[in-house]
Amino acid sequence: MKKLNITLTRSAIGAKPKQKATIQALGLKKMQQTVTLVDSDATRGMIAKVAHLVTVTEA
């Protein structure tokens, strides 16, 4: 199974409430924090909603 490294690169301060909830659901709390998640359709959908705030690389 592929894994993705997701890093919060921009602040969610001015983001919409649904985008903030998505960031939280991904497990991101601080700027420059990186989490490793399994590459699934659900994860890809969440990344698509906040693509302007995060950076994604393959682990």
List keywords for this structure.
59 residues; alpha+beta; Ribosomal Protein L30, Chain: A; three-stranded antiparallel β-sheet; 2 helices; 3 strands; globular
Percent of residues in helical segments?
A: 25-40%
The level 1 CATH classification is Alpha Beta
How many helices does DSSP assign? 2
Mean pLDDT: 97
CATH superfamily: Ribosomal protein L30/L7
Strand order of the largest sheet: 2-1-3
Look at the helices and sheets and give the structural class: alpha+beta
CATH third-level topology: Ribosomal Protein L30, Chain: A
| Sheet having the most strands | 3 strands, antiparallel
What coarse outline follows from CA principal-axis ratios? Answer: globular
SSE ordering: EHEHE
Distance between the termini: 11 Å
| Number of strand segments | 3
Task: Estimate nothing, just give the exact number of structural domains.
Answer: 1
Oligomer: single chain
Q: Judging by the overall fold, what is the CATH architecture?
A: 2-Layer Sandwich
Explain this structure to me?
The chain has 59 residues and is of the alpha+beta class. It has one domain (3-58): 2-Layer Sandwich (Ribosomal Protein L30, Chain: A). It contains 2 helices and 3 strands; from the N terminus they run βαβαβ. The chain has a 3-stranded antiparallel β-sheet, with no helix packed on it. The chain is globular, with a radius of gyration of 10 Å.
